Amino acid sequence: MSASSTLLPIGPPLFVAVVLATLIAAALAALARMGHGAAVLRAGARAVVQLGAVSLIITAVVTSGPLTLLYVAVMLGVAGFTAGRRFTTRRCAVLAVVPIAVAVVPFLGVLLAAGLVRTVGLVLIPISGILIGGGLTATSLAGRRAMDELAARKGEVEAALSLGMSPRDAALEICRPAAVSALIPALDQTRTVGLVTLPGAFVGMLMGGASPVDAGAVQLFVLTGLLLVEVIAIVGCLEMFARGVFPPREAR
Asked: What's the predicted TM-score (pTM) here?
């Protein structure tokens, strides 16, 4: 693909813009006392390293079926650990891969069996990445909000238990209303697609020469798939909280 066919011209100005955006974001976060100034810098640096590494290995990965599956498995593992670190101990963080995998793996299996997604690395990896990323976001937000709610309303959980509710039902009663708000970003993205944003899949297909109708159909599939994955991930995350799988915040 020539430079003129990309969304942004590749060259020194683009890299300067990336550096400046990261530095300004970190500085503003620090000045506003958001507590994430250093995290912004680390995230930017990791993005550079990780995207650079992916660019170097992606050719070898997409031409091999086993390596493609291994790459997807690594994506799942990293997503679970990243999400879990937001709301539980490092020792138990990897367990957050369960709601993500339960949401993504069966869905991908159905898509592959139906022939909607080809068993080709250049197709399977991007689709898997989009779905896993959605599951990560939903699990991270739902888990953090559930943990915060259970910690802040511990007395209400104990009161529900004293009234005869099971530990599972008592926990769900308290944390579910807050945790399900994790679905709001996906709902807003779906509701406003085409009006506020043109998502990556749509733009990428247009740049690759697809017709607007074809690009729109694929993007619709991606958005509805993300909604399904995120709903399942949130339900799975809540169930694990209700069953006491994740240690409470005080145990950190």
From this structure: 0.80
Compute the half-sphere exposure of residue 228: CA atoms within 13 Å on the CB side of its CA: 16
Q: How far apart are CA 1 and CA 201, in angstroms?
A: 17
In terms of average pLDDT, the best of 32-36, 49-53, 130-134, 240-244 is 130-134
- Residue 143 contacts by C-beta under 8 Å, 6 or more apart in sequence? 83, 84, 86, 87, 88, 96, 179, 237, 241, 246
CA distance 249 to 252: 6
Distances (CA, A) of 140 to 93, 100, 129, 144, 218: 11, 10, 16, 6, 26
Tell me the pLDDT tens digit for each residue of 72-98.
Answer: 999 999 999 999 998 998 888 999 999
Residue written as token pair 């993300």: 226
Written as one letter, the residue type at 181 is S
Q: Is 197 helix (H, G, I), strand (E, B) or coil?
A: strand
